[in-house]
Amino acid sequence: MTIVFLDFYNEVAEQAWSMYDADTSSKDEFESALKSSIQKALSELWCSYNFPWRLKTQKIKTKVLKNVYELPPGKIFIKTINGKEVYSIKCNKKYLKYLSNYEELIDYEETTGEPTGFYVKGDKLYLFNIPDDVYTIEIEYYTLVIGYNKEEEDIYTLEEEDDIIEIPEKYEVLFKNALKTLSLAYSIADTTDENYEQYMIQYNRAYKLLIDYCSGIELNKRITW
Known about the structure:
Layout: E1 2-4, H1 5-13, H2 32-47, E2 55-61, E3 68-70, E4 74-76, E5 78-81, E6 84-87, E7 89-91, E8 94-95, E9 97-98, E10 112-113, E11 117-121, E12 124-128, E13 130-131, E14 136-143, E15 147-148, E16 154-155, E17 164-166, H3 169-186, H4 194-215, E18 222-223
Parallel strand pairs: 5-18, 9-11, 10-13
Antiparallel strand pairs: 1-17, 2-14, 3-12, 4-14, 5-6, 7-8, 7-14, 11-12, 15-16, 15-17
Helix pairs in contact: 1-3, 2-3, 3-4
């Protein structure tokens, strides 16, 4: 299911106690205060929990003697396997070991073979061993991408009136309820304002329902083999 920015802006504006015009027809009519409040609330809500729809898989085909690759746009999924936490990065269906002491690796530049470990520097993924063949690396991660624009490019916030938030239909109402009330709370500069308190009460209720529903299919379960 998709949530269009213009439609959502008007839905927020028409909520009780709102002081904004709910008949906006284009982004030129957006109130900057409400627009920025929606952007802030969306960023906070999106990253506040490992929502199941955020979990994505990226596959990388390695190149011979190339060990540096781009990380996916998000946080790598951590699983618990046999009582130990592992990053969900696999090569040929085997989890790669996280190398925290990679600087101590001996003769690293001469070590080739099937990758068995990895480390991260900046926004790059480094494989160890250096691939001596073409391998498939699978990375599960929680994406920061919230949707797409009219050119179908990934976006990380809402800017244009036709920008779209993409989430499954079954979560839409719960997610929107939380996002609406948090957006309106953030649109009020004075946190002692009576309406701010009411919006936050509504947000906390909406957020609890959203989390309760999503945690019913929590993905980060213990795995034993």
